[in-house]
Amino acid sequence: MANVESFDLDHTKVQAPYIRLAGVKTTPRGDSISKYDLRLLQPNAGAIDPAAIHTLEHLLAGYLRDHLDDVVDVSPMGCRTGMYMAVVGEPNEQGILRAFEAALRDTAAHDRPIPGVSELECGNYRDHDLDAARQHARDALAGGLKVQQTILLQR
Ligand SMILES: [Zn+2]
Predict the structure, then answer these.
(1) pLDDT above 90: residue 3
(2) Whole-angstrom Cα distance, residue 78 to residue 47?
(3) CA 149 – ligand 1 centroid, Å
(4) Is 79 labelled a binding residue?
(5) What residues are paired with 9 via a beta bridge?
(6) Rg (CA), the chain
(7) Residue 125, C-beta contacts closer than 8 angstroms, at least 6 positions apart
(8) Cα angle, residue 77 at apex, residues 75 and 83 outer, rounded to 5°
């Protein structure tokens, strides 16, 4: 089976909340795509409820694009402790950090209907929790976001 970068990260050594450059891919035409972890919760110390991370997915999909150019994808981690984000190019980490902070502030302040929530637009439109999503955004901001370096597992 192919090696997966995130399985080489020592999840016991990181300190959430953080952003981490997980890797950079170069396409056959020479463009680069950077993948980031946007970690909200400390690994193995809790998880975001499915409805709340679903709402975070809907809100951060829009708000991150408001603050950052060329976002390819924002999607929840299966462990429910944060999100993955792919962006075109190699933006500097401080810029990613500021964009994530701004998107979390927008999320914490979001007091309108959640975008994309209907049977036509979403695959599980009943499964949302705006209050919990806002609380996770506030908690991450209060926790002090930082840039996390990759600490590889010693095998
Ligand atoms: Zn959805």
Answers:
(1) no
(2) 10
(3) 31
(4) no
(5) 152
(6) 15
(7) 117, 118, 119
(8) 55
